[in-house]
Amino acid sequence: MAAVLFPHLLSLVFFLLFLSHPPPCFSIGDDEALVEFKELLTNTSALDSSWKKGTNPCDNNKKWVGVQCEKNVVQGLILGGFGLSGDIDVDSLVRLQGLRVLNLANNSFSGFIPEFFMLGALKSLFIDGNQFTGEIPGNFFSKMSSLRKVWLSRNKFSGKIPDSLASLKYLLELRLDNNELSGAIPSLSQGTLISINLSNNKLQGEIPQVLSRFGSDPFQGNPELCGQQLGRECKAAASGEKSEGSSIKWIIIGLVVVLLLVAIFFKTKRREDHFEKLEKENLDESVSVNIPRTNKRSMSLCNSMRSSRRGRSRSGSDMGDLVVVNEERGIFGLPDLMKASAEVLGNGGLGSAYKAVLGNGLSLVVKRLREINKLNKETFDTEIRKLAKLRHRNLLQPLAYHYRKEEKLVVSEYIPKGSLLYLLHGDRGIAHAQLNWPTRLKIIHGVANGMKFLHSEFASYDVPHGNLKSSNILLTSNNEPLLTDYAFYPLINNSQAVQSLFAYKSPEAILNQQISPKSDVYCLGIIILEILTGKFPSQYLSNQKCGTDVVQWAQSAVEEKRVSELIDPQIATAKDSLEKMETLLYIGAACTESDHDKRIDMKEAIRRIEEIES
To answer: Does one domain contain both 513 and 584?
Structure first.
């Protein structure tokens, strides 16, 4: 995606107003970030007495337990041996701009390694003595160039040692002992390295010569390692017939690999073509599912910037002003925007979406709404403030807006991990790999909780959400879903609602141009079926020529009693949970019943989902 640096020319100032990315004059307080981090942890009794929102974590008289400060800035979290467990909220840690040391050693954290790579300025990472599992992606450390100390010992990590560790030019200490790591040892040639421990793993092959200075102790407990350090000579390639046989074997393997690469190439090509079609269909995504944006896309952004009018930054006294309605991320104005960079994220039914990164590191998303001319400024202000006051863990609230008769801008926080749509269908990295059965059930529960709240808060609306689809569900670093683009129905021109809101894809809307709270139920059913099958719903596209008709597929499977065939093979391996998966598929089918009167209502749908325990 192309980044655009805002020049100081007046025309680009106007553009900035278009983007309207509100950078807070003051970044979120360290106390708030730490309290948010603690909220997702369990067994926090040791922290509860001192970790109080509104107090200074660096106050020498009332210092927070486990917090290290330098010049009144949080520099380290030393939480080793506190018996902590639960989810590690990396998003909150990102807001601690001075954080350099993170020590979570000797606790009870489990699951895949969290997205610590988002903490680019970190110098020391200690997570040894936990219960983390799974492979660490090869490029995990590529953006953590400041790391000096990496301690991952005494977990259950598997797979290869990440190659990106070799790129850490300041690395001093590396401890990976007592895991289940396999494969060869990468060439860790940093002259800075003074301590290394790779013992008690399943590593194989010859120990790199550059590591010979460390002796044998760091490599013990790896039966398939060889080298002078261990007194185990590496076997040379056999000669004669064995050598000839090996050569033939490797030729065959090479041919197989080539054929596989060719197959993967064509499969990937089809995949990219598929997502290019999705983009042409104007999916209203907060995070693109396509390949990186081209310069052409950034130019269109520049053009739209130049076409915007001049406005001021904060008060609501002028039609060109930016109005902050939620100060949790601070107050911001045009001077901050002029220092920001911008990217185009997507273009959909409601309008275009942009990302702006402010000078203090805060990232924002600005949605430029095209067809919201239904209300005057006072009424629009009332509706947006109503959304900004909502508080629910599964909702993303607006932070600010800009009102002009021709167009409106709505600003919210940028969620780095992206949308459920992207992670299910566009990503094949670690984030997609994390979409196992427990994670998918967690997402369904979170979406259901958010919908339950919206249908209570906006019970008088014809359709409380109105635009529920996987591109409007963002995931935090802990895979907690956040609903976006909700409760816009009262703002949109009646003539444009059909093109703008996904609720109008429900059968009653298609046939009779009528929507109701049950239209949201239909959309919820699509989400459930999409998550469980792993298929891209054709319902998201106006021509429905791509993807899978998950509604018809589910209805047929229910009638023929073969619902188990619908389950995504990636989660079908969780044999002890197949019954829960099938129950959810039946719920998805009930939610997408074409007969409006026979379709279950939201209250019943939520009740059935809540009965399925995590």
So the answer is: yes
Question: Could you tell me if 57 and 79 lie in one domain?
Answer: yes
Quote the CA–CA distance of 389 and 296 in Å, as a whole number: 38
Nearest residue to 346 (alpha-carbon basis) of 447, 432, 419, 412: 419
Give the tens place of pLDDT for each residue, 336-385: 655 667 777 777 667 788 888 877 777 888 888 866 666 788 888 899 99
Q: Which of 413, 441, 456 is the last residue of a domain?
A: 413
For residue 336, the tally of other CB atoms under 10 A from its CB is 22
pLDDT over 90 at 448, yes or no: yes
Same domain, 456 and 398: no
- Whole-angstrom Cα Rg for the chain: 27
- CA atoms of 532 and 536, how far apart (whole Å): 11
- The answer as to whether 294 is a domain residue is no
The token pair that represents 321 in the structure block: 């002003």
Based on the number of CB atoms within 10 Å of its own CB, is 265 exposed (0-12), middle (13-18) or buried (19 or more)?
Answer: exposed
Residue of 464, 479, 443, 484 whose CA lies nearest to 348: 484
Q: Please tell me whether residues 406 and 518 are part of one structural domain.
A: no
* pLDDT tens profile 179-204: 999 999 998 988 889 889 999 999 99
Q: Tell me, what amino acid is at 563?
A: V
pLDDT in tens, 528-541: 999 999 999 988 88
* 86 Cβ neighbours under 8 A, 6+ residues apart: 40, 41, 42, 43, 109
- The whole-angstrom separation of Cα 49 and Cα 526 is 45
